[in-house]
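Input structure tokens:
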């Protein structure tokens, strides 16, 4: 990323090499550790409002997955196990060896749940924020073929200069259609979303989505939940409409909570980017885990 792409702001956080990849990490606050992980194509700053409210009660860790936000790209396309391990290794790099609460939004809900199953001793609790749900994932193409196609498409788009011209505008459009409120553009949108690095990362995450869903289905069979001491809350977005699609989505989220032995809650009025529309709902979901698992800080009132 060139200097002219950077806004006139100090770069928040720091960079840590995790699994060989320089990751952008922002850590703030005090108390039990809580990791915030964004959905497909999102960045650390999407959690700004949540982090500001949560930092007085928790040590809040935000990070950009490889290629997203300000993080460097990874040499290989993402897999579910690698993303779950990345959370554990990031906590190690920060010196947080004890259990942490993990909040996963959308696709990152897969990663958070996999972290709980693969690293149960490291997980104090889970909050899945409008998490992805796939009841019977069945990828139809070989993973290598799909990722090669996605990488080639991202390369062609980048060669045409489209990320530089349209990236920030596309990011703002996605923000508008996935929220119910009005939110100003973030100063760092231009720096991140005009790069080919982010386009490629988004393409690969999208391409590997069905395979990550299938990996999670297999992991659920191998390592069932609920697990003792790991409380779970599934927080579903509800925009207030009575459409069949919206009601079906709420039922799918409720079913996910039941499958995980967790609590079901609704954030409203909210679009898919719950953390932008109703950040206080995310904060309450995190703090209300207290007393039900290994996270023993006082609940937020």
């Amino acid at each position: 990323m060139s200097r002219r792409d950077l806004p006139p702001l100090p770069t928040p956080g720091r960079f840590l090499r995790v699994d060989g990849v320089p990751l952008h990490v922002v850590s703030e606050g005090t108390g039990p550790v809580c990791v915030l992980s964004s959905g497909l194509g999102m960045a650390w700053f999407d959690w700004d409002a949540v982090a500001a409210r949560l930092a007085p009660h928790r040590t809040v860790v935000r990070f950009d997955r490889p290629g997203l936000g300000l993080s460097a790209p990874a040499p290989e396309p993402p897999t579910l196990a690698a993303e779950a391990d990345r959370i554990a290794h990031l906590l190690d790099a920060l010196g947080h060896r004890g259990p942490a609460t993990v909040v996963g939004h959308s696709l990152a809900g897969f990663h958070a749940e996999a972290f709980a199953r693969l690293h149960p001793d490291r997980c104090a609790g889970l909050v899945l924020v409008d998490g992805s749900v796939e009841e019977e994932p069945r990828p139809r193409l070989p993973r290598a073929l799909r990722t090669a196609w996605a990488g080639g498409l991202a390369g062609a788009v980048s060669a045409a200069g489209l990320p530089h011209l349209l990236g920030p505008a596309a990011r703002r459009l996605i923000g508008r259609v996935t929220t119910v409120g009005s939110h100003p553009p973030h100063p760092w949108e231009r720096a991140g979303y005009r790069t080919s690095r982010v386009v490629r990362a988004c393409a690969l995450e999208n391409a590997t989505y069905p395979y990550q869903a299938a990996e999670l289905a297999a992991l659920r069979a191998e390592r069932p939940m609920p697990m003792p001491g790991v409380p779970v809350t599934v927080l579903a977005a509800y925009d207030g409409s009575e459409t069949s699609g919206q009601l079906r989505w709420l039922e799918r989220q409720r079913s996910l909570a039941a499958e995980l032995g967790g609590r079901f809650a609704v954030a409203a009025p909210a679009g898919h980017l719950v953390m932008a529309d109703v950040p206080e709902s995310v904060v309450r979901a995190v703090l209300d885990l207290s007393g039900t698992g290994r996270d023993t800080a006082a609940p937020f009132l």
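Residues 231 and 289 are 6 Å apart (CA to CA). The beta strands are 14-18, 21-29, 33-37, 59-63, 100-105, 123-129, 232-237, 263-267.
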